[in-house]
Amino acid sequence: MKALLGISITLLAVVLTGCAGAQSTGQPTTAPPSAAHPTMSPEPTSPPTPEPAAYAIPADCASLIASTPFTSTFGSWPLNDPAVVGSPGDQYYTPSGSISPTPAPSGATLLQSMLSATELRCVWRDPQADITNMSVEIGEVDPAISAPYLQSLPADGFSCTQDGSAETCEKFTTDTKYNVEIGETVLVRDGVFIRVSQANVSTPDLMDTLVSDVWK
């Protein structure tokens, strides 16, 4: 009996010693979160796609002045009359209406180079008129052409102003033969030009109307 009691006491001491050895040391028993869940680098993102240009070249001359006072002024004159602009094959034929840009001729001036990019040309003029006329030309132009062209205009008597991304140059004088006002206005904005040439006609706010037709 004493032998069995001694064995029991010995086993109990072994069990207690084992439990004491299993006590927590206060140190984590698992890998730190950073090791268990490594931080992932963000996926590379593509640059945003540029928004399309906020302008459109009109394709119809009559629509340029629809519902404006100009329909009862120069808008009542013949538009792109063959007797004025000529016909294909004529020596002095001037393509009008909705047209395709053409390469500038060899040795072209800056103005000729710009006008070769015309996509809409509108000419209001009575074939019997001596000087009274109105023309509008609109197209996309390379800044390498439009910038030096605009820079050259003040030396030719033009007055130029900057309004945001738009630069406008204009020149009005009096024709000595007919004693009527003649004028030319050029606006360049976002790679688009609008050129207005006129004689013996009043056109207040015409450029604003044309700008609203191009930039919706």
UniProtKB/TrEMBL annotation:
PROSITE patterns, per the entry: PROKAR_LIPOPROTEIN
Q: Which residues form the signal peptide?
A: 1-22
* Keyword terms, alphabetized: Signal
Q: Where is the composition biased (Low complexity)?
A: 28-43
Annotated region (Disordered) at 22-53
Official protein name in the record: DUF3558 domain-containing protein
Task: Report the source organism.
Answer: Agreia pratensis
